[in-house]
Amino acid sequence: MSLLSQFTASEITVIDGKATAAQVLEEVKHDVAALQQQGITPCLAVVLVGEDPASQVYVRNKVEKALMVGIRSLEFRFPAELSQTELLAKIDELNADQSVHGILVQLPLPKHIDETAVLERIDPKKDVDGFHSENVGGLSQGRDVLTPCTPTGCIRLLKDTLGDLTGLHAVVVGRSNIVGKPMVALLLKENCTVTVVHSKSQDLAQLCQLGDIVVAAVGRPRMINASYLKTNAVVIDVGINRIQENGKNRLVGDVDYDDVLPMVSAITPVPGGVGPMTIAYLMKNTVHAAQLQHAQAHSTSV
Ligand code: GUN
């Protein structure tokens, strides 16, 4: 008997990421209030280089959400011509500023800037993206470090839906540094059996059929159809793909939602599934970063 059959779905659950994100933001507000009682106002600095329209929207949303939950936010916008040296100097300044708890450099960066050099310059304790190698390594060792927002949000959705994930077989489709790889580490931490497949995998559909849980993070519109899934799988769709259909712009996931819906036990829609969780967990990480820095300052002062 599959472990997943313990979760007997009488009907299909459409996982409401908006509602869960709202709940996470309430938790953040509560944590912000507790920090404020200790004289700390969590602060997030967001850095944007260049004029990419999508990045501008993402940054605006992050800053607005921070203000909503009582997190102070600083926004630094630079022209695309900014040199790497100047950007690194800005990061050094934010690292040294004790009133700043989280630093996020919006990606992608212009081509003349070495992304890795920039991400490695951020103080790991302020790395609210969880992209610094110290945090990546810490996560793979199962330590309590800052972890990437999107996969961390996916784990929350899975645990809210299924409870304990122990022993479930999760298939992660995609091996990006932002989602796929940290997702694997987070699922292992939850005691899942994990298979990771990618564009060069053979028998992709067959491998996906092993999954009690399937996490799709490939960036290919509607790639995962019913032939990829076992009956009653729980599907997390991380894809956000803009397509043109019948003359209209549409946002679709990596999963063919209408095709798989009859056979899943639970699924995240696009939009309204994983998307809202990313920003909510950025806020959660900012508070976590403030707590880490406060604990460290306290332990070194006694
Ligand atoms: N660009 C697209 N997604 C992300 C993200 O999660 N963090 C940052 N810093 N930039 C991004």
TrEMBL record:
Q: Which residues form the Tetrahydrofolate dehydrogenase/cyclohydrolase catalytic domain?
A: 15-129
Q: Which GO terms describe its biological process?
A: L-histidine biosynthetic process; methionine biosynthetic process; purine nucleotide biosynthetic process; tetrahydrofolate interconversion
Known catalysed reaction(s)?
Answer: (6R)-5,10-methylene-5,6,7,8-tetrahydrofolate + NADP(+) = (6R)-5,10-methenyltetrahydrofolate + NADPH; (6R)-5,10-methenyltetrahydrofolate + H2O = (6R)-10-formyltetrahydrofolate + H(+)
List the GO molecular function terms: methenyltetrahydrofolate cyclohydrolase activity; methylenetetrahydrofolate dehydrogenase (NADP+) activity
Keywords assigned? Amino-acid biosynthesis, Histidine biosynthesis, Hydrolase, Methionine biosynthesis, Multifunctional enzyme, NADP, One-carbon metabolism, Oxidoreductase, Purine biosynthesis
Q: Which domain of life is it from?
A: Bacteria
Binding positions for NADP(+) per the UniProt entry: G174, R175, S176, I240
| InterPro entries from the UniProt entry | Aminoacid_DH-like_N_sf, NAD(P)-bd_dom_sf, THF_DH/CycHdrlase, THF_DH/CycHdrlase_cat_dom, THF_DH/CycHdrlase_CS, THF_DH/CycHdrlase_NAD-bd_dom
* Function as written in the Swiss-Prot or TrEMBL entry: Catalyzes the oxidation of 5,10-methylenetetrahydrofolate to 5,10-methenyltetrahydrofolate and then the hydrolysis of 5,10-methenyltetrahydrofolate to 10-formyltetrahydrofolate.
Q: Which HAMAP family match?
A: THF_DHG_CYH (MF_01576)
What PANTHER family would the database entry show? C-1-TETRAHYDROFOLATE SYNTHASE, CYTOPLASMIC (PTHR48099:SF5), C-1-TETRAHYDROFOLATE SYNTHASE, CYTOPLASMIC-RELATED (PTHR48099)
Q: Which NCBIfam families match?
A: PRK10792.1, PRK14186.1, PRK14188.1
Q: What is this protein called?
A: Bifunctional protein FolD
